[in-house]
Specification:
Blueprint: H1 2-6, E1 13-20, E2 23-27, H2 30-38, H3 40-43, H4 52-57, E3 64-71, E4 74-78, H5 81-88, H6 91-101
Antiparallel strand pairs: 1-2, 3-4
C-alpha cells in the first residue's frame, strides 16, 4: 500500500496484518490495511511478488521491496535495482512475457 500512497516501501507493523493467499501481510497503518483488504488484487504485487524480470525470462527469483515500479496501476518487484534497470529497458515486452509465463513458471 505504501508504494501507491507514499511512493516508497514502508515496514509493516505486526498489529496491522492480514492473511491473504497463504501469507501474512503487514501494513504501516490501519488505513493501508483497510484499503488493501477492500481490493487486494489492485495493490498486491504482480507475479506473487517474485522478480518481474525473472518471471519474464521463465523462472522465479525473490523480489526486493526496494526495487519496485508501478506500471499501468500495477506493482512490480525486481530482484535488485540492477536487474530492475534491465527490466525497465523494455518494460512493456517484459510485462507481456511475464504475463505469458505466469503462473506456470511456478511449476518449474
Amino acid at each position: 500500500m505504501a508504494y501507491f500512497k507514499d511512493g516508497k516501501a514502508l515496514k509493516g507493523q505486526s498489529k496491522f496484518f492480514l492473511e491473504h493467499n497463504g501469507a501474512q501481510w503487514r501494513f504501516s497503518s490501519q488505513d493501508n490495511l483497510d484499503d488493501f483488504k477492500a481490493d487486494p488484487s489492485k495493490y498486491a504485487p504482480q507475479f506473487g511478488g517474485y522478480c518481474a524480470w525473472a518471471v519474464s525470462q521463465g523462472y522465479t527469483a525473490k523480489g526486493d521491496p526496494n526495487a519496485w515500479k508501478i506500471v499501468g496501476g500495477k506493482l512490480y518487484l525486481n530482484y535488485n535495482r540492477e536487474v530492475q534497470a534491465n527490466w525497465l529497458k523494455n518494460v512493456s515486452v517484459n510485462i507481456e512475457k511475464g504475463n505469458a509465463n505466469w503462473p506456470t513458471v511456478l511449476a518449474k
